[in-house]
Amino acid sequence: MRKWLKKIGTASIFSIVTLMIIAADNAAEKEITAPEGMVYVPAGPFIMGSDIDDPDSSPQHIAETIAFYIDKYEVSNAEYATFDSNYSYNEGDGERAATINWDQANAYAKSIGKRLPTEIEWEKAARGTDGRMLPWGDFYDDSFVIYSKKNTRGQSIAKPASPYGCFDMASSVWEWTADWYQQYPGNTHNMEEYGEKYKVIRGGSTFNNFACFTTFHRYYVHPIDTRAYPIGMRLVKDIE
Predict the structure, then answer these.
(1) Which residues, in sequence order, are bridge partners of residue 97?
(2) Which of 78, 56, 27 is nearest to 216 (CA)?
């Protein structure tokens, strides 16, 4: 762990200065009120990726987003069932995260005027602008992740949330992004999975190794064949 923290602390001077410049702008935008159940993520750059995770997460670089809203929690079974009459879940599990394939997630998002987050948006919402390793900081604590398949939303992490107020961005269920599994700019590690066959998932799921919970870890899954992975969704809304 110390090795990880040491490397995270060696971000380039450019990265640090860039993020310091936007701090005042972010503070000025705190008064914006997000739609019910969502949080506001301001525009600007942040540190994305990692040089100490799997090779597909490299290189660490500066990415940038426009401002957006993102769900505070993952979409629940009860919420998704209002859209898909064929979707069923066990009694008492209405507040657990829905597990669905990418097409189902995309269709649901469109039906309520939202969309799946890009990979860049997901990572910024989880990581903030300080390059942290986990949504709550640069340290791991088992008490922050409750290992139970009966978790309801907001319980996979006891406390706290991500920098912008999102819960369950580590553990609970994996979360779909809008993006195909592609190389980052400057990545020299070739993988046969790159291309437009697999979608990127983020956040890890209950009982994964904690390395899957990091803000920068990414994995790929076929958008329809999800039998081996519990994958849900956290949606984004554009600011008009």
Answers:
(1) 76
(2) 56
CATH of the domain at 168: 3.90.1580.10
Minimal CA–CA distance to 179: which of 199, 203, 201, 193? 199
CA torsion 144-81-177-234 (nearest 10°) is: -40
How far apart are alpha carbons 173 and 65 in whole angstroms? 24
The segments of the chain whose pLDDT lies below 70 read 1-30, 143, 145-160, 207
Q: What is the distance between the alpha carbons of residues 189 and 180, in angstroms, rounded to a whole number?
A: 17
Structure tokens at 44: 């600007």
Give me Rg for the CA atoms of the chain. Answer: 17
Nearest to 239 by CA among 1, 102, 40, 55: 40
86-123 pLDDT, tens digit each: 999 999 899 999 999 999 999 999 999 999 999 999 99
Q: What is the residue range of 121's domain?
A: 2-238
**Cα gap 123→103, rounded to integer Å:** 21
